[in-house]
Design goal:
Two copies of one chain form a homodimer.
Chain A lengths: L10 E7 L4 E9 L4 E10 L6 H19 L3 E5 L7 H20 L4 E4 L1 H8 L7 H11 L9 H25 L6
Parallel strand pairs in A: 1-4, 4-5
Antiparallel strand pairs in A: 1-2, 2-3
Helix pairs in contact in A: 1-2, 3-5, 4-5
Chain lengths: 179, 179
């Protein structure tokens, strides 16, 4: 178990990876250097479930996570350019619910591209899903690889935000000269 | 003013036309043959407003309309195939909120393609926006053309559902032989 991070420096980040069938989420507590995983999981759309009720399921689950862990920030994958129009539209439905949750709870939202996430977590923009899972396990000191990969992706998004935020903080504290 | 429709036969339909900048809505009361417009309007995204808060605006406004008019059914445009992936994704966000509202209030949702809507309202699948506005005015006995066209589109979606539903009812009552 990772050493507990003192409360006065911590930021709690909710990472969410929306999908048309599975939406992953993960909550990470960080002081910038050390990260601790508070919870992770995924919200599946049942085969028999219609889209409106699967969206309500995402909304209710995320609201429970927000109420329990009270994150300071939500991090989510930015607009997904590679998809075709139809899959982008279905993905947009789930993403809309996440954005609504952020606005309802007045939590700032940050977006990162898949490339940024992989670079921040694995160090390589074209990393495989398995590498991302392995790095999420290592960086968060988990005993096992986070499954399914949607949950690992969500944790990776949260860790990506932690890294980017820490980098920004160091710039603002003058530790890294900004050119 | 149109003659009031007796309450025991009426269906109240909320039509919604989601858009990336403007979402139109319209509430229509119908007995199958006669339609009455209860309200219509649009929800605009302010230029300075971020996407999460504009989605919350859609969610709050639709919830108010649902609470005030208690529609029996929500009708919405079906997946829009012509858009590119990015505009489809943004459109999907707004559409996700409408579907969430339907699930939250446990109201059945029906979807119609732009072609079906135009055919049902104007009688021609490639009708112009102005024709749709004109027909919405005529069919609903409005004193003026519903503006903006997003609200007229929403009313047209509601009227389209009224027509399709009435057709289904006649089939089930055996007035139109179903081949």
């Amino acid at each position: 178990m990772q050493q507990e991070i003192p409360l006065n420096f911590v930021v709690i980040i909710l990472g969410v990876d929306p999908g048309s069938r599975v939406t992953g989420y993960g909550v990470v507590r960080t002081d910038g250097g050390r990260h601790e995983c508070l919870t992770y999981g995924c919200i599946r759309r049942a085969r028999v479930q219609d889209l409106p009720h699967s969206l309500r399921n995402i909304y209710d689950t995320l609201n429970s996570v927000l109420a329990e862990y009270r994150p300071d920030v939500i991090a989510v994958e930015s607009l997904f350019h590679a998809a075709n129009a139809k899959s982008a539209l279905v993905l947009g439905h789930a993403r809309g619910i996440i954005l609504l949750c952020a606005a309802t709870h007045d939590i700032p939202l940050h977006e990162y591209s898949p490339l940024e996430i992989k670079k921040a977590v694995v160090g390589y923009g074209r990393a495989e899903k398995a590498q991302l899972q392995q790095m999420a396990k290592l960086l968060l000191g988990l005993k096992q690889i986070p499954e399914p990969h949607d949950a690992a992706d969500a944790l990776a998004i949260a860790v990506c935000h932690a890294h980017c935020q820490e980098f920004q903080n160091r710039i603002s504290r003058g530790k890294i000269p900004y050119r």
